[in-house]
Design a protein that fits this description.
The complex is a heterodimer of chains A (62) and B (466). Chain A has two helices and no strands. Chain A has 62 residues and is mostly helical. Chain A has a domain of 42 residues. In chain A, helix 1 packs across helix 2. Helix content of chain B is 36%, strand content 14%. An eleven-stranded mixed sheet of chain B has the order 1-3-2-4-6-5-12-13-9-7-8, sandwiched between helices. Classes of the chains: A mainly alpha (62), B alpha/beta (466). At the A-B interface, helix 1 and helix 2 of A face helix 9, helix 11 and helix 12 of B.
Chain lengths: 62, 466
């Protein structure tokens, strides 16, 4: 997953607006930094080959 | 006895109390006096329950005078991270916002269980806001300070729990550990810390962070204290839906069985790179003492850590979504900006991360067919300075706050029981812990190994010289 910093800034802008999140001006660049780390982490997770049938860890017991 | 009761281990304090060397009132007053003297500098406590402690002490002394049975922790003092409920106070979880919560009506289950064995609650302890922290810093309440060198971090998020135990303000503390928040401050403050198996101890009456990953556990100055507290806190609790239905499996009775027959290995691969040399030196010292010549490699650890990271971001953000939407300026900025980013994590990543969690669990279960215990670093370095934002590890500069859990995060991800055991290098003021990791539900093995290391003098948790 390769995402440019400008793209992540755009994600932050649009997602924040859509979710009603009012990011303090001083925090915006830090949010971008954290989401950038999340994209790097996600690349490791999403690229992991797992079968469609793989069960997620939490199992609800009714 | 010349040492103040609060500076003893919990087991020593309880033995002295049973022997009539001091009464519970003296135990409480020694703790209150030491807290008054040193907490203004350490900033470990956010609430001191003096009246409650004195009432508990009076009741305990009266019970002893009547010849009633005394619990194994009778006369020992303890304090809890301020995400544990206790009746009459709002549960802060390190936040400013939670001051508006109604006071808790009842105590957290683990508080009740320690008190049932005679331990005396002295108060609530500072922590990183909403437990999203590895530093022990807090914009609202100030940083807790490392008793072994107050210019340095306690680690977090159970920072006050680390400071109070290491300084001998109380005999025992409780913390929580989602990604390393018991083990990181245990490493930085030189304590034994137990993160039990996920689902072992009740979380009822504690403020959550990441429901998929939250654990509660003790921090202490001896492995025996961990075992005594752990045994006291076990047992089913109908108020915790995440708790596993397990029988009570006491660890303290078998604590001194030694290491003979245990198959112990060091963790290679991911756990053998990306840290300061002292982290690996601590592991080498412990592995050598244990005769652990073998190395095992857990697969895809970097992906496991990434998955834990994403689940944490998403679940943490979900928990606080309304608060970050409506009152972002009331958060610690270091926490708020991570939570806001977490609100933007797509669901597809989180579900995949949860699939990876089960896969990783199964892979590691295979490894535990071949070994009983795995040794790994607890933190990638000794305690950084308070306020330090970045650190260079293996030539790479990285942020301190999210990365002190590099080695703890993949282990709690799959809920394995771990004891952090502190190791000291001659000439160094600050310690560094190793993780003693066992298969699910085998806390007894991790505690046995920690106890053996303690008795051999390899791991120690001395009271800080203040």
């Amino acid at each position: 997953m390769s995402v440019e910093m400008n793209d992540i800034e755009a994600v932050v802008e649009t997602t924040a607006a859509a979710m009603g999140l009012n990011i303090p001006t001083v925090g915006k660049s830090v949010v971008v930094e954290h989401l950038t780390i999340a994209y790097a982490m996600a690349a490791l997770v999403v690229d992991m080959p797992l079968e469609d049938e793989a069960e997620p860890a939490p199992v609800f017991t009714p | 006895m010349s040492a103040a009761p609060c500076t003893l281990t919990a087991a020593e304090a309880a033995a002295a109390y049973r022997a009539g060397i001091f009464d519970a009132e003296m135990s409480v007053e020694s703790a209150l006096s030491r807290i008054a003297a040193h907490d203004p500098m350490l900033n470990a406590f956010t609430c001191i329950t003096a009246a409650r402690a004195r009432a508990s002490a009076a009741a305990l002394d009266a019970a002893r005078a009547r010849g009633e049975r005394l619990g194994p922790l009778a006369g020992a003092t303890f304090a809890v991270k301020n995400l544990f409920d206790f009746a009459g106070e709002p549960t802060l979880a390190g936040s400013k916002i939670n001051r508006e919560r109604a006071p808790a009506k009842v105590d957290a289950t683990l508080v009740t269980r320690l008190e049932a064995q005679g331990a005396i609650l002295l108060g609530a302890l500072n922590m990183g806001e909403y437990a999203y922290d590895f530093t022990g810093e807090n914009a609202h309440y100030g940083a807790s300070r490392n008793p072994h060198d107050p210019e340095h971090m306690t680690g977090g998020s159970s920072g006050g729990s680390g400071a109070a135990a290491a300084a001998g303000l109380v005999n025992l503390t409780l913390g929580s550990d989602t990604n390393g928040s018991i083990r990181v401050p245990s490493s930085f403050c030189g304590l034994f810390g137990l993160k039990p198996t996920y689902g072992r101890l009740s979380r009822a009456g504690s403020f959550p962070f990441v429901a998929s990953l939250d654990h509660l556990g003790p921090m202490a100055r001896s492995a025996l204290d961990l075992a005594l507290a752990y045994d006291a806190m076990q047992g089913e609790d109908e108020h915790d839906p995440a708790q596993a239905r397990r029988p009570v499996e006491p660890a303290s009775a078998r604590l001194d069985q030694g290491i003979a027959g245990l198959r112990i290995a060091g963790a290679g691969g991911y756990f053998a790179r990306g840290a300061a040399p002292e982290a690996f030196a601590a592991v080498d010292v412990v592995a050598h003492a244990l005769g652990a010549g073998r190395s095992v490699e857990l697969p895809e650890v970097h992906r496991a850590r990434a998955a834990a990271y994403l689940i944490t971001m998403a679940e943490g953000a979900a928990l606080h979504h309304e608060r970050i939407r409506t009152r972002p300026l009331d958060f610690d900025p270091d926490v708020r900006d991570r939570l806001i980013a977490g609100a933007m994590v797509p669901g597809a990543w989180v579900v995949k991360a949860q699939k990876l969690r089960r896969w990783f669990r199964d892979q590691v279960a295979q490894i535990f067919r071949e070994v009983d215990v795995i040794i790994a670093p607890a933190t990638p370095c000794r305690a950084p300075r308070i306020g330090q934002k970045t650190i260079v590890l293996d030539g790479v500069e990285m942020a301190v706050r999210p990365n002190m859990g590099l080695f703890t995060q993949p282990i709690s991800f799959i809920g394995l029981p771990v004891v952090a055991a502190p190791v000291w290098t001659p000439g160094q003021r600050l310690p560094m812990a190793v993780q003693i990791i066992a298969a699910p539900w085998r806390e007894d093995l991790a505690l046995r190994v920690a106890r053996w290391l303690e008795r051999e003098g390899v791991a120690q948790a001395p009271v800080a010289q203040l």
